[in-house]
């Protein structure tokens, strides 16, 4: 089933990072920061490594991190997951998402999500024998059509996946969208899985988790990780929080994937989550400045960027660049830009379904999770 679909030959992010390595281009494709995370986090992990913290942790994670996650959810969002039974530590948000999906999905079930979307959702839904039903966010504004959202639900809908802030578009969903998702999920008795890995990369407003809406917590699994907030995508530490009856099923499932995440890194993550508000504010301001550099660079190069309200991605209509380089679409442009301009981005059609790919043919995603000088250089290269 999977290989005949040809979808699992490798992720587009791996492919674009290989392209960047081969051509020596600036890699604005795969999203990962090019700096280390906060020293408090690194010191805590190093101390744990040297201090005997090198054996299995409990399946649900070290209690210090479970408590730090619960405390973070309370500090920023007023949510109150129980640290012991309502938080499970996972190997990145990736395992948190995979375990959440596989814990609840059965063959024939349907899962509603917006597209374009992070590629893991489609792959794991398929592992479960379930089917992803997508609602397109249409360019150039990428705002959801609530009638189309409602129409995507049916008798087989078992789950909704909401990625907010949204990769790749940088969209942040407003209260009307979040409330409609909660209503529809209640009507169809669905579990909602929210992917909030970009929760602290928000520009012009604080993040509001769907679980904080009235009536939402009891049916919602909230997933996040250290990767983006603490510039530690290689640590592979994430977590899922929510009500005990849902989180318990995720814990039981993930026990058979990896058992537990790396113990010393969990202790580092616990220290990171406890950093003062000033750290989080500084992070968002730093990324906002980098966003502006990349948005301006793309516009100066003739692309038409959509200004993101969250994440570290900008999607841009690269029609003018396609014309300049004599290619038909963003997919054909990616290797040409790498060779001729020395910049790698991800063609958005790679993150869309066959049914809706046509909406995004001239759109490309660029990451600003990089040093400012590199972002400035990328802008100049694209213009040249
Ligand atoms: N969800 C989204 C939307 C992502 O962009 C990513 C990649 N950073 C992940 C999940 C995976 O996160 P992690 O690296 O913590 O597994
Ligand atoms: N989340 C990152 C992105 O969207 C990449 C993660 C991965 O390589 N799977 O670019």
UniProtKB/TrEMBL annotation:
Its EC number is 2.6.1.-. Its cofactor is pyridoxal 5'-phosphate. One of its GO terms (cellular component) is cytoplasm. Residues 25-378 form the Aminotransferase class I/classII large domain. One of its GO terms (molecular function) is pyridoxal phosphate binding. CDD domains: AAT_like. It comes from the Bacteria. The keyword Transferase applies. Keywords: Aminotransferase, Pyridoxal phosphate, Transferase. PANTHER family: FI04487P. Belongs to the class-I pyridoxal-phosphate-dependent aminotransferase family. This is Aminotransferase. It comes from Kocuria turfanensis.
